[in-house]
Specification:
By secondary structure, this protein is α/β, with parallel strands linked by helices. 31% of the residues lie in helices and 21% in strands. β12 and β13 form a beta hairpin.
Length: 675
Amino acid sequence: MRTPEILAPAGSPETLSAALRAGADAVYLGGKLFSARSSAANFDNDQLREAARLCHMYGAKMYIAANTIISDGEADAFCEFIRFTSGIGVDGYIVQDPGCVYLIKKVCPDAVIHASTQMSVHTAAGAEIMQEYGFSRVVPARELDCRTLERICALPTETEVFVHGALCMSVSGQCYMSAMMGGRSANRGACGQACRLPFSADGNTSDYAALSLKDLSLLPRMSELVAIGADSLKIEGRMKRPEYVASAVHETRQALDGNFPDMKLLRGIFSRSGFTDGYFTGKRQDMFGVREKEDVTAAQTLIPKIHELYRFQKQVHDVRFSVRIAMGEPVSISAFCGDISVSISGDVPQTAQNRPTDVQAVEKQLSKLGDTVLRFCGVDCQIGEGLFVPAGVLNSMRRQIADMLTEEIISRNTPGYTITDYAPVLPENRTPGGVVTYRAVCQNREQALAALEYAQFVILPMDCDFSGIPADRVIISPPRFICDEDAVSGKLRELKERGFTRLFCHTHDCIAIGKRLGMTLHGSFTLNLFNSYCAGSLAGLGLADCAVSFEAKFSQIRSLRCPMPLGAVMYGQLPLMLTRNCPIKNQVGCGNCRKTITDRTGRNMPVACSGDYVEILNPDVLYCLDDISEAQGIDFAIMIFRRETPEQIREIFCGKKPEGRLTRGLYRRGLQEVL
């Protein structure tokens, strides 16, 4: 088993320095654009260039978080960003959008790309299919237990596991709450953290934080992480202070070295009512928490102590010197660091008037490396008798050779890439069918039978009663979060043998399982298709068609180019959040479940329970059926029916608007701009 890397966040140059000085093996950071943490300070291009040099000086790797979904109009700027960052020698890209993967490979064919946790990979099958895109590493969902992580770690693709930091309430990549409530898309890097606002499961509109989880920490379980084969230990926190990052890196190193981490210190620096390991252990109790006054107070007293971890340059490279001082020859000094060596020559030594230069005098001057990343490990001297070299000369030569060696170390650690002048070219477009057809997401047989009078296909849960429903008109919907991959695969195999050959793919995990079984793959809107390059990539992966993200505007949808049919959700209560933790169960228990949570304005949000996970829904019903002409370019419209009766379903198909609050969603108003 090789030792996994410690991967630290860096939201600013100050935090980057703290992470490296505290002992991080790698850092991840974002530029001013295309980063999922656009609210962090982040790095402009000049700062990115210096950041790459600093990381490579330490022998650390620098990964760029280019983990937002992009629009077609941003493709040119994205390619320029990749061209610049690959030119400065970044070590890898963390990416969510398959369209971005396509563009990166066009600009830099040999780039190293990691699958972001926002791709929602949560099975071994999902991790395995990442190789088809060209990912060399996958960052699985944080909601996985040790057993599932072990299966993923056993694959050839590297596995990066979150080990410390904040937990989102929602599965990453599957949260639309901030976008729907305030136009700030988490998938576009602008999450407004709406989940940290007051919510309650008992109808009380007080300040109860029903959607706030404790912070994660798996540091006390480090031996298990090493044993299952995790390649990278990821610390969350690009929005955090340097003290937080330095302490988290230091304690992760302590745990990795077999020592018990100082969890009291980590809790004092930052936590939300302490820490949890509930996902990893599978014991999802006591996972909710908030930032309390005592947490804030404790941090103030600990900050001075933490400063000591990163006040000074960390010496990480062992250096040995060779010095020759001979009569009538220029003084020569060579420095050796691993297989790297550099040499310089100075002036001819003087004849000693008093005390000649000896080994001790040379060692004294050459060992003064405290302001560098170099660690003095001795000197071999050849010194003629009666010769003198002033201390100032030796100091000057030391500084010169240290700078030369440092530059050589940076150069050696900076990867070189093939960089092209590729300009984005939109994929080949399909010929739209002309007549929009309908697909109905239903919860049960009765709803499906009513919908089939109008819809081409019904999308049904895989455990549904299918009696009387033609198999060729059914698209099977597996769980949005698959907790037992083998059981789901087995059930789908059985259904396929019964003639149900179509699969609704919520994530790449579903795509992978469906491909193995030879099913026809229909992409869900939760694949976050937002640009033409993503559409082309999904088609290349084997999808027959796909629904566009409901975060896109109608004008964007109309301009998409894609070789496969496209659809859009035109009716229903949209999911705002997919979570493994039920806020109702946590606060009031299942026996007192009202199937809603209440926000601070008194609005009730429905909560749909699916056993292994819950979905928090938008209380307003999306209704665009009278707006089909606005969605020109789509081939099918998706209707999501949840509690509607068969009669209500028929009425909606026949043009009757449902009662209650309706919304056009984001199709017209769109998201806040990030570029």
